[in-house]
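Exercise 7. Given the components listed, write out the predicted structure of the assembled complex. Treat all entries as one system.
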Amino acid sequence: MTQPASSTQAVYVYEKPVRLWHGLNALAIVALTVTGYLIADPLASVSGEASDHFLMGTIRFVHFAAGYLLAIGLLFRLYWAYAGNEHARQIFLPPLLNRRFWQGVGHEILWYALLVKEPRKYTGHNPLALLAMHFAFVWGTLFMIITGFALYGEGTGQGSWQYALFSSWVLPVFGDSQSLHSWHHLVMWLIVCFVLIHVYVAVREDRLSRQSILSTMATGWRTFKDDKPLDDIHWP
Amino acid sequence: MNETFYDVMRRQGITRRSFLKFCSLTAASLGLSPAFAPKIAQAMETKPRIPVLWLHGLECTCCSESFIRSGHPLAKDVILSMLSLDYDDTIMAAAGHNAEAIVDEIVEKYKGNYILAVEGNPPLAEDGMYCIIGGKPFVEQLKYAAESCKAIISWGSCASWGCVQAAKPNPTRATPVHKVPGLADKPIIKVPGCPPIAEVMTAVVAYLLTFDKLPTLDKQGRPQMFYSQRIHDKCYRRPHFDAGQFVEHWDDEAARQGHCLYKMGCKGPTTYNACSTVRWNEGTSFPIQAGHGCIGCSEDGFWDKGSFYERLTDINQFGIEANADAVGGTAAAVVGAGIAAHAGLTALKRARQSGAEQQ
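Answer.
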């Protein structure tokens, strides 16, 4: 990877596996949301013989395949948090006990409230983004994977590994299958909200912040718009 | 020494041939291999009949009504030959003090050896005053009988989960058997359903008596042989679901063709029961076959999940009745509007700033 010539202090933040995972993960989430919604609220009925169609079956297949992609992706991403650079583990281990971090969160909130003129400058995620990444995305996705496999295990049945690993304990936690379905559906909306905000702030920050955003997710390199010192170098 | 099942059967004029036929039928209805028929026969020839106390709390008697309509094995076989149903206030001959005395007699005489079958559940509010049996709160009778029983069968959704009398706001604090505080620690078999399928009920009893042990139970305490699959998994309309053919209105062509009732709120995909395989009334039909969706009557809290006719049911945690789409869709709309407003404000501020800089 060559360093873009235009910047004086570019940093290589997102390694290739992380960028690849980001893309596949985004695809999986779109596929899961669309098919998931259609499973709860199916398309208009098809006519003719049942044996001529497999519409719901196909929609469910796409949902399950994308679910596997999401789960295996997250497993890989967890491995990469261990094997990759320090930025790769950032979303899994936010420095919640660091005072400077919370000051950063406060500043970022003021920035989004349009009350301060200048945002701070970060190589990794800004503190507020990190909170959203960790709590909405990481835990939200984990919740969807666990409840998703528990629902899947209901179909594969007792004796399957999905049932043994997930359904057997998740069903009693939620009390019954219907409640489990409802919660799985509800957290889908949380992920939808996350995606909406994620895309909006990525575009906005790309325009207004002091570092590159969109191009960084494409190339991995973070470039900066000024030469002032970074704000996140003191993080663990 | 008590009479054995076989003794009783012979005394009632049942031939050995009929007896062996019955054993084979029972093995088949329990889903066992033919090799088990002789084992059942042997058990019935040698084991004393196990007395059963059948108590009734807050209930509607639909469990009893279902039970007496069992086709395989016939309820009369179960009651008269296999189980000595010593106390069941709905169907026994004795009444009043004589009837109540039987409870004491069984508890004393068969300590640790009788089965306690519970239909309905005890209300705990006001010290149990909402259900009085023989002058005493039902919860006391239940605790007393449970103290020396061998195992408890929770008949139906009332005893298993609470059912309609425990639906919110549950003014009498009707409580399912396994949640009654101070109840003796005995194995509990839940046989949920409103009512449970007759054959499932008699098979559970037959299993207990012939093998002298509990059937394999799942994590929620239900016999695995009948509650390990959802209605949806074995529904004969499943091919229409996979094809994407749904009933959209009660009177449309799809309803006449017998397409999937998913969109009409069928709870088959979330309900664990044997209706789609065992069916009802000697295998005649079951709700979906009759054209109505499953209402999920064997599931915990099915009364409190909102409409029987909607796929996406209510989530009670949100105070007012709301379903996932209402909550989530609103949240997404608010977020979307927020983003638009925020983008507008940002642009406005930028414009002002650059205007100020130019001046």
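Discussion: The helical segments of chain A are 16-40, 55-83, 99-112, 127-156, 161-174, 177-208, 214-219. Residues 1-7 of chain A have pLDDT under 50 and may be disordered.
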